[in-house]
Amino acid sequence: MTPPRPSPKGEGKNLLIFLAKKVDPCKNCHSDIQADASLCFHCGAVQNVTDVVECEQHAGEPAVGVCVLCGKPACGDCAVSVGGKFFCENPQHQELFKQWAVVHESDFEFESDMIQRNIAAAEIQTKVFSFRSYLGTMWLKEWKPVRVLVPREQFSQATDLLQNLRLLNEQKDDNHGRHSDAE
Ligand SMILES: [Zn+2]
Ligand SMILES: [Zn+2]
Ligand SMILES: [Zn+2]
Description:
Layout: H1 8-19, E1 23-25, E2 32-34, E3 65-66, E4 73-74, E5 80-82, E6 85-87, H2 91-99, E7 100-106, H3 109-121, E8 127-130, H4 132-135, E9 146-151, H5 155-164
Antiparallel strand pairs: 1-2, 3-4, 5-6, 7-9, 8-9
The structure holds zinc ion (3 copies).
């Protein structure tokens, strides 16, 4: 006689509750982000946090956002807002953000190096940006700080490549609000 087992239905329910983390709208772009997130990675806006991160250029000034490309914290005076997203004072970063797409995110530079080498081997250009250099890991919490970018026109080629190598992230673009789908 087989012992009674919890119904698969019940298990699914528990799993769903576990996955459905609390989300709140970003106070800048209103995208769904995790309720305790320090930053909105859709737009770079600093959320309500107790630790204040300082502007990289103006010591003592609290950052209002971080550059969505490089992660550099910027205060109200030097942050550039384009289409509701924050950028640092480097004008190249606005251009790069338009022309390049994040193909992979990771917690560690060695992982990104490996991804970058694989993509470069297929003669696709890459750039790596690490938010960690500015924010450390404490601030980033659930977000992966090291990002590999490829030109938008080579994005699908790069994702296919990573897929074939089984190196693709579960999510790889500007879709951090996915938790809300579980509700
Ligand atoms: Zn936002
Ligand atoms: Zn930047
Ligand atoms: Zn500043």
